[in-house]
Structures are given as C-alpha cells and as structure tokens.
Prior knowledge:
4 domains
Amino acid sequence: MKDSLVLYKEQPAIVVNAGDRLEIGLAGGKTQKVRQKDVHLLHPGPTKTLGELIPCEGDLKTAWEMLTGETINLSEFAELAFNEFTPATAWAAWEAVADGLYFVGTPDKIRARTEQEVGTERARREGKERERNSWEEFKQRIEAGSIVTGDERYLQEVEALATGQSKSSRLLKELTRGETPENAHSLLLQIGHWDVSRNPYPAREGISLIAAIAELPGLPEEDRLDLTDLAAFAIDDEGSTDPDDALSLDGNTLWVHVADVAALVSPDSAADLEARSRASNLYLPEQVIHMLPESATRQLGLGLHDVSPALSFKISLTEDLQIEGVEVQRSLARVQRLTYEEAENRLSQSPFAELLNLSEKLADRRRRNGAVEINLPEVKVRVDQGEVTITPLPAHKSRGLVMESMLLAGEAVARYATENEIPLPFSTQEPTATDERPGDTAGMFALRRTLKRSQLRSIPSPHGGLGIDAYVQATSPLRRYLDLVVHQQLRAHLNNGSLIPSQALLERVGAAEALTSELRRAERNSRQHWTLVYLQSQKEWRGKGIVVGQRRQQVITLLPEIGFEAHIYSNENLDLNSEVEVAFESADLPNLIGHFRIL
C-alpha cells in the first residue's frame, strides 16, 4: 500500500508506488524497485517521510515481563510498550526486536524471551563488552610498547603472520601498519614478546623442524667387496655430523665411497616418503634438521664404525685424465675421518699429495671445458646456547681436493647410467654468455649474478658451469633426497631389480625441486638473521670491505670477515676491488638489513 512503512534489509523504507514491483523510498532520498517478498510491512501508514520515525518513550521492560514466553504481532507489541501504534512506535518496537535482548522474531510473530534466555544474552553481551574493553586496553599497551601477562592470546595472530602461517592480523590492521611478516616481526621485537634469538624463517617457508621418525631396518645380508685394506678418508668441516663420502686412491684409479643409504631406504618406504617430503637436510646456524632418522647416520655414516658399508664408485682414468671405466660396487670400507684443516696439514704426504695433484689436473680439465670458478669469501655461522660465532672458511686446497673428486664421481655415475640405460636426474646448466673468466672479487661477484640456474633432466646434457658433459649428484644420500634416489636406482641395477620408471623419477624430481628453493631460502635468511644478531652484540664492530659494485649512491661491499653483502650509502666513486674500512651502525632485523658506514 502506498505510504506504508516497510522493513527492507533491516532498514526502514516508505512505499512510493505499489504494483507487481514496489517502488520504495530509502534514507537519503533514494528510491529503489524491489519485489514484494523482499519487504516486511511495519505500519500501513500514511508515512510521508522517514523523518517521522523519531525516538519514542516506552516501557519495554514492563512489556517483556508481561509477555515473557508469549508471542504477539508488531502492532500489539507497539500498543503495549508505547500505548499507541504509529509509524514511529512501530519502528521503535521493531528496533527493540532487532536488538534481540528481550524480544526476537518477525513483524508478524514476535516472541518475548524467557528470563533464562535474557540472562544468558545479557551475560554474553557483558562478556563481549568486557572483551572489547580488554582489546582496546591491549591496543593502548601495544602503542605504548609494553605488554602484560595474558596478552599472549592476542599476540597469537601476530605471531602467525610473522611465521607465515597467516596473511592477516587484526592488530596490525587496526594500528594501520601493513599486514606483512616483516611488520609483525618488528612489532613482536618492539614489545619484547620475541627476542632476537627467534628465527622465523624456516616456519615462514613452511618447513618442519621436527626430527624424522620413520623406522629403519637392519642392513640386508648381501655380498660386499672388501676394500678395508684400501686407505679411505672422509674429509669434512669440523663439527660435521653426517659423513657420507670418502676417498681412496689406487694408482690411476680413484675410489669414491658413499654411505649406502639405499640399502636401508627403499623406494616408497616410510623413510623414503619422509625424506621426499623434506627434500634435503636443513642446515641452520642453530641446528640441523635431517631428512632421515638419526639411526641412518648412526648405521651408515662413514668412519663412525671400524668398518662402514658403502656404495663405492671405482673410476679408472687414462693418462690424460679421461674416464676409462666405471664400476659400482657394494662394499665395506675402513674410513678415517679428517677435517679440512687436518687434511691440509698432510698435503705433502701420500696419498694426499697424489690426490691434490689429481684434483688440480681435474680442475684444469674442467676449466678448458668452459667451467666457471667463483671464489668468493665464505664463512660458517653457528649458534651455540644463544651465542653466535662467525668463522671465515680458509681457502684450503683440501677443499678443492674433495670437491674435484666428488665432481668426478658425478661425471662417472652419469656415464655409468648412460651406458646401462638407468634413468637418473641429470644436473644440467646452460653455458655462460661470456668467455671472460675474471680473477678478481668484483668480477666473480658480477659473473655469479649472470649464471643461470642448473636444471634436472631425465636425459644427460652438459653442465656449463662445471664444465662437465654429463653430471649427476650422487655423493650425499644422507643429505639430499635426489642423491638417495640415484643410489636406489644404482642398487636396483646391481640387484637386477625394478628401476623407478622415468615418469615416476620426474615426479620425485619435481617434488624435491619444489621444496629445495624454500629450504635454501630459509637457510640463507637464517644465516643473514644470525649475522645481524651477531653484529648487534658487537656494536663497535669494524672490518674490511671489498667494493664489488656501485649503484647510484650505494656502494656494494663484501665483508669477508662475516660473509655479508652490505649496501652502503656514499657519495664517493670507489674503484672496484678497492678495500675500505667499514663500521657497523645498526640492524633492521625483520627486514634483514644491516646499516654500515665507510670510515
């Protein structure tokens, strides 16, 4: 009916024209055509303007007490509560129903709540009001930079954003701060809920820090070649806990012994699936998360027992260091563990002198084949009981000795797989766009940025960066899942068993590659985090920097002592490779930025 008062989307409206579709007038003078079923009649009118709906004095509580548990319509309710039924009292009565404390329902059927229902609703509202007040007090404390016991429940959603478990934060939104993990991290540090020892980067990448738990069987009874009379050496960093490769030299034959992990971890076993879900070990300054259970290292780590089971690669070389033949053997080896420092001190002795000579010739062969050498400062960042230490890694020749031997093993396995038609993940890389091979720090820094990422393929192709025609990573099955897959394939071949088909192999490669970039990013950001924590504890830190680039007013400087790349504001034009003295000023921990000045 024209001029009647109706309810539309919980707001009052006046019928302007009636028909199949009603034209209604809304607040602000707007009109709209709606279906009749979209509105509820509140009063037949006449209602000329919504301005008539002024607040009315009534006795709602008495009306509720009289009607408790009963049901009436809107006109009866308005008469009882306001002593008359007008557009204004009809709207006031409906607002009481919409409020929901004493009354609920529709304009045609309004029910007065029971005393128990009203008590429950009142308690809910009071609790909500207390929570609202508590939240506002919490926000005031946050803005003042402090918290009290009990605030942890409000901060859970900020922590979830800081660790990548959520993409939003009510607190940051209401404080008009950007809802980013960095801003959440910054706030948690600012109020003292987190301290600098909290490393959020593994969680932010979705990486589990829980140890692997799959059970492993014992070693199978099988024939193994006894190589215990052959001197074998596992050379690694001091403190390494998972020795999985060792070297022996027998004339022109290089033996590379590798932990026989596939003897215990078969394809699609529980341990295999768990390792696949992790892709590799996660190396953080504060801890190492292994992709396999600790029992794998205890049983298989080379040199941890008097005799170690291994999968050994016998690589026979010609006089000009071409691979003449490759054998793969299940073996037993007696391995001596050495640090790089200890091996360095024995380079004048046999067989280390011969191994060094071999490695230098192998490196020269790869260089002639286009290999790229990037020798930039490296450090080891470690955290022990909250104390950060940063140790530069010396450019020991023993490192090159081990590296060249492992690369040769990868080349040999690729050749063996090709000759025996074994599907493997071959590591490939396009050659660099330049033939220049700089020998200075700035040149190598720039060259590193031009290198294309290596790719894994099911068919052998050259690895331009290594200068190898076909290459497979095969010497770290305790640490890298795809190395373990290589060993599973090799053992299946030796046992005349079923190989993993190429398609299934590619699926494993895809799963591992998807996780590997996240793992490496978590490791890189964690090292950066702890380096900045170290600098904050050494507020007067000063050190040498090497200029490797310049961009506008920023000098890109490598700090060899701490393995840090600093972007320092300076108006000076400094020569590449020049040395500068720099001083630490401050750290922006959430954004992983260190601020330095050139002295």
